[in-house]
Prior knowledge:
The structure holds 2 protein chains of 2 kinds. Chain A is of the alpha/beta class. In chain A, strands 2-3-4-5-6-7-8-9-1-10 form a 10-stranded parallel beta sheet, with helices on one face. Chain A has helices spanning 2-6, 11-19, 23-31, 37-44, 52-67, 105-118, 136-146, 162-170, 185-191, 200-204, 206-213, 229-246, 274-287, 301-307, 344-353, and strands at residues 70-74, 76-78, 122-126, 152-156, 175-177, 217-220, 251-255, 292-295, 314-316, 357-359. Chain A has 15 helices and 10 strands. Chain B is an alpha/beta fold. Chain B has 2 domains: 11-225, Aldolase class I (TIM Barrel), CATH 3.20.20.70; 233-464, Aldolase class I (TIM Barrel). Chain B has 18 helices and 18 strands. Chain B has helices at 11-14, 32-42, 56-73, 83-89, 103-110, 123-131, 156-170, 187-193, 202-205, 210-225, 249-259, 309-323, 343-355, 368-377, 398-407, 421-430, 439-442, 447-467, and strands at residues 20-23, 46-49, 76-80, 93-96, 115-120, 136-139, 176-178, 197-200, 228-230, 233-235, 239-242, 263-267, 298-302, 327-330, 359-364, 383-384, 413-415, 434-437. In chain B, the strands form 4 sheets. Chain B has an 8-stranded parallel β-barrel with strand order 1-2-3-4-5-6-7-8, surrounded by 6 helices. A 5-stranded parallel beta sheet of chain B has the order 13-12-11-18-17. Chain B has a 3-stranded parallel beta sheet with strand order 14-15-16. In chain B, helix 6 links the parallel strand 5 and strand 6 (136-139). The longest helix of chain B has 21 residues, at 447-467. Chain B is globular. The interface between A and B is medium-sized, with 23 and 18 residues.
Amino acid sequence: MFRAIFQQYEWAAVKQSIYDKTAADVERALSRSHRDLEDFKALISPAAAPYLETMAQISHQLTIKRFGRIMQLYIPLYLSNECQNICTYCGFSYDNKIRRRTLSAGELLTEVGAIRQMGYDHVLLVSGEANQTVGTDYFVKALQVVRPHFAHIAMEVQPLDQEDYELLIGEGLHTVLVYQETYHQEDYKLHHPKGKKSNFGYRLDTPDRLGQAGIYKMGLGVLIGLEDWRTDSFFTALHLQYLEKTYWRTKYSISFPRLRPHAGGLTPKVEMTDRELIQLICAYRLLDEEVELSLSTRESPVFRDHAIRLGITSISAGSRTNPGGYAVDPESLEQFEIHDDRSPALIAEMIRRQGYQPVWKDWQ
Amino acid sequence: MAYIPERTGGSLLRGKISGLNFITKDDAPLNHLQQVEAACRAGIRWIQLRMKLADDMTFRETARAAREICEAWGCMLILNDRVELAAEVGAHGVHVGLQDMSVAAVRRLLGEEIIIGGTANTVEDIRRHHEQGADYIGLGPYRFTDTKKNLSPLLGLQGYRRIMTQLREEGIEIPVVAIGGIERGDIKALIDAGVAGIAFSGLLVRAKDWESTVRSLGQEIDDARDMLTIGDKTFCSRLFTGTGKFGSSGVMEDALLASGSELVTVALRRVDVRKTGMTGPAGNGDDLLLHLRHPHMHLLPNTSGVRTAKEAVFAAELAREALETHWLKLEIHPDPRWLMPDPVETLLAAEALVKKGFVVLPYIHADPVLCRRLEDVGVAAVMPLGSPIGSNKGLKTQDFLEIIIAQSRVPVVVDAGIGAPSDAAKALEMGADAVLVNTAIAASPDAIRMARAFRLAVESGRMAYTAKLALPSVEAVASSPLTKFLE
Lengths: 364, 487
C-alpha cells in the first residue's frame, strides 16, 4: 500500500529539499534521459524557472514522440450535486445553500443526447458524495444508461470500496479519477472538516483499491491552491511512480485543477501563476513520458491554446459543471466557473490549426 | 587440503565483519554475560568480550558461557587480549591491544584459523599489524571515552580520513573498524571515509531498548555502506560469481576470493548430492563445495540443465536438501545450444517455488513484462541477461535493462554475457543492483587477476551511480519559443 511509503516522508523536509534545489540540479535533470523524483523536485523548484523554455521544448518533443500530434477530447457529465461533505473550496459543499439535483435515468439520457450531439465519444461522469442517494447502486444504473452511447466512460465520484469498483468495471467503467486534493494531512483535515471525505487515509488508499480492482486507467492530482503546489506535486509524483510499479497494467493520467472562484468562495492559500503551471506540466512530462496529462476548462483560452503543445494530451471543451447543465437545467449552480467557454467545435478547430488532430474516440 | 587464503585481500572478512560490533564494558548496568545475551538478542553478530578487571578464572568462565550464547545466536565472539584462553574457550578470535602480545606472536601461537584483530592509532600500527597477518584493525579512539583509560591521541574524523587515504595509497587492504566514543551522527562520515564497521560500547550499554537501538544503528550503517539486500541476506559485494569453467578448483577458489564475491552460484548437477552437503568427504578431490567454505561466501544453487518447471522444482528441493539453503537461481533452458531461458516455464516454476518458501532469483531474458510478472509472484530479485550466456558480448539488451531497472520493485542482477569489467561497470552505472559474472573470469588466462579487475569495476560502477554521473550538457533550444506567450 502507498500509505506505508507515504509515511516515510515528512512534508516540511520534502518542501525544504525542493526549495534547496539549485541551477546545477536543474541542468542535471534536464540532461538525463531517464529522470527520477529528485530530478522532478529540481524541475518543479524555483531554481528551474529560468529553464522554462528548455523544459517546454523537451516536453513538446517527448509528448510528440509518445503520443503523436493528437489531442484527446473529453467532457464531464455531472450526475448530481448532492453532497454530505463539507469542502471549504467546493460549490457543492454540504453547507452551501443551493438547490440540489440528482439526474434521473430519463434526465441522464437527455444529457447524453446533448453531449453526443457535440461529437463526444468519451465521457466523464461526476458527482458529489451522497452515498444514500448517489452510491454504487445509482452508479450501476447510470452506467447502464450511458454505456451504449459512449466508447469510453470515466468517473470522478467519491472513493469506493474495491468490490464496488469491480462491480462498476463489470458495468463498463474504464477510468476513475480520484484527486487527493492535498497530501498535507493537517491541511486536508482543515479543508474537509465533515463527511466521509474527512478520512484522509481512506482517500489515500483509493488508488490502491482501484489498482487491485484492475481498473484500466486512473487519474491523480491535487487541488492546486490548497497548499504549496510544489510539495503537493512531489507527493503526486511519488504516488504515481508507486502505482505505475505496483499496478503496472493500469494507465495513469494527471490533472492540474487550479482553485477558481465558486459559490463557496475560498481564496487560494497559495497562488500558482501561469508560468508555474506550465513548469509543472513540463516537469511531469520530463519525469514520465507515458503519463497522460489533462487540462480542463478552468484555464483561460490563451493558456489552453498554448498548453496543448507543451505536454498536455487531453482537454475538455464545452463543459458544464452542473447536473443537467447541457439540456435538462442549464441555469442551475455550477461547481466551479468555466474560464474557457468555447464550443467543442471551436476548440477542435483551434487544435487543428496548430497541426494537431482532435480525437473524439480512442477506445473500444 | 584446506585452502589457506593469503592475508592480503581485505575481502576475506569483508562480508563477515559485521558493520556493527559490540564491545562489552566493565562497570555497566548489566554484567558481561547479560550484555552478551542482550546484544545477541538485539541482533548483533560480532562481539568482543572485554573484561579488564576480571581475573583469569572469572574471565574463563564468562568467556565459556558467552561462547555458548554466541553459538546459539550465530554470533562471532572475539576475546580482548587473554590470548592463552582463546583456544580453550573456543572463541572465534582475539583482539590485541598496542601493549599486548604482537599479532605475529598470536598467529604463531593460535594458527591460521583464528581471527586476529589489532588495535591501532596510527598508519604505522596498521601497517605492522597487517604485515604480521592481522585480519582486521580496530582504529581509534575517535573521541574521548571513559571505556579506555590509557588513551592514545584522539583521531577525530580528520584522523580517520587521513589514515584511510594513506592505506589506500599504500595498497593496504584490511577491514578497519572505528572505535572509541562514536555517536550515531558520526556513522555516515566514518563509513564514507572507508571504515568497514563501527564498534559501540558505551552507547549500547546505556541504551534502554537494545533492540531498537541496534536496529536503527544497523540500518544507518547498512545505508552508509550501501549494502545490497536481497531476501533475508545483505551483501557488501555487488559482484556475484559462478563456479563453472575454471581450470581447477584451486584457481576457482583463489579467483572467487579475489573477486570479493559473497554470492556464488553452483550448478546442482556439479554437486554430489549423495554426500551431506558441505561436510562430505572429499572423494575424488573434485568436490567443489570444499573450495567454497568461506564464511563470507553464500551459495546460490542453480537449476542449470533442467528443461521444465516440474524438473526445476524437483532440482530445487534437492538443492535445498543438499546445500542447506533455500536460495535458488532458477534457470530453465530447454535449448542446449544457446541456453535461452524459457519464460513460460520459469514463471510457472517461480510461482511454485516461492510458495514452497524458496528465495527465488530467476535467470530470464531482458523482458520487462516478464520481470513484472515474476515480481508479482514474489521472486526476490530478477536476473535479466545482458547478452547470450557465455558470449562475452556485454550489454546488448541495454535498452530493455534500463526499462527493467526503472520499474523494478526488486533488485535487478544483470546476468549472462558480461564479458569485460567495463560491461560490469556500465551495468552498475545504469543502476543495476548487482551483476553475475562467470565465464569472463573463469575463462581468463589469469582468472585471479580478472576476478580482481571485476571487483574493482563493480565497485567503481556502483560508486559512480551513487555519486550521480555527469551527463552530456543540455541541447541548444530550438528557435521558435513555446513559452513566449507567458511574457
